[in-house]
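Let's practice the habit of predicting before peeking. Look at the sequence and jot down your guess about where helices and strands might fall. Then scroll down.
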Amino acid sequence: MDLLIGERIKKYRKNKEMTQDALAQALMVSPQSISKWECGDGYPDITLLPAIANFFEVTVDELIGNDEINAKEDVQKNFFNVINSLSLDEQLDLALKYHKKYPRNWHIATSLMHRITRYHGNMEDEYRKRLVDIGERILKDCTDSTMRRSAVTAMCMVCDEEEIGALLNRDSTFWYEGRHEIYEKRYKLSGQEEKYWIIRNAGNFLRTSAMIARMREHKSYIGKPEDSVAWNTMYLNILIGITQNTIPDAWIPEYTMQYIRLSAAYFGLGDNENGYSYLEKALELSKRWHEFPENALLDLGNPLFFGETKLIRNDWHIQLPNGEKLPILQGFKSEIASLASIMEAEKGWEWFNSVRNEERWSAILSEAESLTIQ
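Done guessing? Here is the structure:
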């Protein structure tokens, strides 16, 4: 069993704001002895332990770290190894007991919070203050991101709904992609099925958009045109599957960009017919996009997956079926690319170079330039 005495002496000495020399003088030992103990190169003589413990006003067990070692063994053996084999009521009782015994064990603390919010919702009012107190201590004293996230999640289950946003802003691990899940969990646990499914469907759009955004970052956008055709064709087929062979209003920017990428790749292959075909498709979508009035409600398509969720053009908030905006986002950017700017760009779109002087290219560019990009 490893003793923690050197670490403890160093900790207690620093708490007293003492130098090694000052401590050595107080204990009537050499400064070299203090240094060796704190570096783990040796231990004090057993006869010195009571005097050192008395000087720091701790027990000998605390001084040598025996209390911490025993606590770890106790928690692992008698808490984590058995709790999942118990009934839900027994799990709660054990978590309450061990949290009282080890109030600064954050794993036990978050386990208790989880069990109250997930399995004992009927007792939330009874334990609300305790949950908040535990969460506040974790946010104040714990640096582990998983523990902090668990604490914020549990607190969001019991706070007033208008307090959720402020709570989520207290922990940097809650980026946009995960915030809607807090509302999903809250409504699910509280039995608010209608609200749950509204947020769930809006969340499906956020999750899908995040997946699409990750796919945009791929090395096949550059390099060989045949690789770009293969990758972007696969990407386009995924979009088609998501939107069920239609191009809903809100997905026009994504389709437009895919058509432009495929156009460039086909021109790079020397397949001008496919190149122009996709470029003309991008132009038609650009025209369609600019027919929408400012702040138009854009359809996401596939109601089985997205429900009646809408995207507000220019404002870029997600609007729920009840007319409210999704509370977790300031805005979700989904602007259309400037087709004219891309066609005129010299860098990054070199595969267009072979056709830049052709009449068909000039006609498409002229129409693209006539569109007002907002």
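How did you do? The CA atoms of residues 104 and 138 lie 9 Å apart.
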